[in-house]
Amino acid sequence: QVQLVESGGGSVQTGGSLRLSCAASGLTISAYAMAWFRQAPGKGREGVATIKEGGGNIYYADSVKGRFTISRDNTENTVYLQMNSLLPEDTGMYYCAAAALRSSWPPQPWHVAYWGQGTQVTVSS
């Protein structure tokens, strides 16, 4: 079975940092653009960051530019999201995703082939 397992979420105060990890199994991430999405309470799922297979092409949502960094280690089959200078509006469930082959750039939720189950990030004032 394909599994994308997120970890590293937690509760931090404004200005804090978290590093999310997405460990993949049953899937070789080198074949996929990988992405992080998040869903805040009462809102839809939105793209946060995407990284192409080779790692050279990266997308960030405007809201996280300069604060978040997506990276991948294809050897370890793991994707990361370093989140710095966290803000309350960053609160939400963060999901790792493998983009479908025919996805747009950046991929939208309906372009995702595989989803992780999410890890909660809570940022308090």
Describe this structure in words.
This protein is mainly β and about 120 residues long. Helices cover about 0% and strands about 50% of the residues. The chain has no helices and eleven strands. The protein has strands at about 5, 10-15, 20-25, 35-40, 45-50, 60, 70-75, 80-85, 90-100, 110-115, 120-125. Strand 7 (about 70-75) and strand 8 (about 80-85) form a beta hairpin.
- Please tell me what the overall shape is: globular
Give the strand content: over 45%
**Mean pLDDT rating:** 96
Write down how many β-strands occur, each being a DSSP E stretch of 2 or more residues: 11
Distance between the termini: 40 Å
Unreliable stretches: none
State Rg: 13 Å
Q: How much helix, percentage-wise, in residues?
A: under 10%
Largest sheet: 7 strands, mixed
- N-to-C SSE series? EEEEEEEEEEE
The structure class reads: mainly beta
Number of helices: 0
List the helices and strands and how they pair.
Elements: E1 3-7, E2 10-13, E3 18-25, E4 34-39, E5 45-51, E6 58-60, E7 68-73, E8 78-83, E9 92-99, E10 112-115, E11 119-124
Parallel strand pairs: 2-11
Antiparallel strand pairs: 1-3, 3-8, 4-5, 4-9, 5-6, 7-8, 9-10, 9-11
What descriptive keywords fit this protein?
single chain; 125 residues; mainly beta; 7-stranded mixed sheet; 4-stranded antiparallel sheet; globular
What is the structure about, briefly put?
The protein has strands at residues 3-7, 10-13, 18-25, 34-39, 45-51, 58-60, 68-73, 78-83, 92-99, 112-115, 119-124. By secondary structure, it is an all-beta fold.
